Amino acid sequence: MGILAGLFLTPPVIHYQGIPYPLNRHKVIVTGNPVYYLGRHFHPVFWEWAYVIWFGQHDKTFIMQYVKKRLMPLSIFSDEQTFLIREITDIFFYLEKQKSCVTDVSLRDINNLCSRFRMLCDYHHDKIFSSSCQYIKLACWDEFNGLLLDQAERNGLKRYLFTSDDVFEQEITILQPTKLPIDNSVILTKDKQVLWRLIEDALFLRELRIKEGSNKSGKLGMLSEGTSGIGKSLFPFKLLELHGLSQTATDTQRLYKRFTAGSEYTEELILTLFDGGSVVCLDELNLAPELEDLMLQLLTGVNRQMKKASKSGFMVFASQNDSRNLGCSALSDAYLDRFHLCRMEAYTEAEFLDAASQAKHPEPEEYVASFQRNRDKYPLMVNTRNFFENLDKRVKDEEVESRSELLSGRGLKNSSSP
Questions:
Q1: I need a surface site. Which of 112, 173, 226, 388 has the fewest CB within 10 A?
Q2: What is the pLDDT of residues 35-46, one digit of tens each?
Q3: Residue 177, preceding bond cis, omega within 30 degrees?
Q4: Could you tell me if residue 278 is inside a domain?
């Protein structure tokens, strides 16, 4: 109970930062997430000492008014605004009915969606989209498809937003990243280029917040989930560098730091990064439960003393393996609600062939076949990371590598790591 322990005294008091506040002169307002959220409970003492109000789901009128308020700063014709309000409201209630949403759709999602729509219009205005309708549909897909665990429901969302798969494939690839990898350390297939753009768009959303001087617009975190070794943590790191951020920058808004669960990070360091408007890259988020209480607070845009940062721009790029994997804990609903969720699918055989061809491998089909044989034989040792590490090495050293060693896959087996 902590600060509420004084409720049992006569007269009752509440202690905050060591100072007692008698309840005959002060009132306490307590808020909390629903009791069905993971790790939440409703203490019985509240039934005796508090007047309890349960908030129900938002109705359609409230959502429409909220969306209208978020869109008001934008220069949109009235007829377009009416369409956008209706479209965003409809998608909110559509998602509420889906059974595989990893967490409830919230006002944070609507807030981030409206910011994303603005960002797409501002940063991709030179593309061929001719109306706000196309931008908002793409913004909805970018914002929400990661919420759905079930592939059938993701396909349903696609059909709900776009008239056909052909229209979806055309529009999802129209908007191209502004920065592309400059070497073979990252090779973007068609599907992974869409994910690369999403991460870059998160940086553009951060730039909008810096221009506004506020951390209150949209979500301050992006969480990428997928299997091991497919680039979940590599993509943000590379994009940060391409956009001029570094781990040694003196300008704190151009500074980022990388951490892995269990590494040498401290609460004091993270608070310093928050206050300076810096970026945190955190690998294996669901293996760092000790950070949850702090991050839950900072990702709202204020610290534990409810003070905003000295500089805007704080952002967290987090990654994790599937929470259903052994040893990985599930994140709470409140934690998930603070992140834009993004799912990074495993590479297909066609993507492996595409990557090997882009890297100008002399025999891409044979290399992919060799990798797949080794992965089947050593499933706990060989993953996608080994594919790219060895691919890069073989391209550089092909003059001194014999064809027999290339096809045998000995390099894959010997250089792989658990």
A1: 173
A2: 656 566 667 666
A3: no
A4: yes
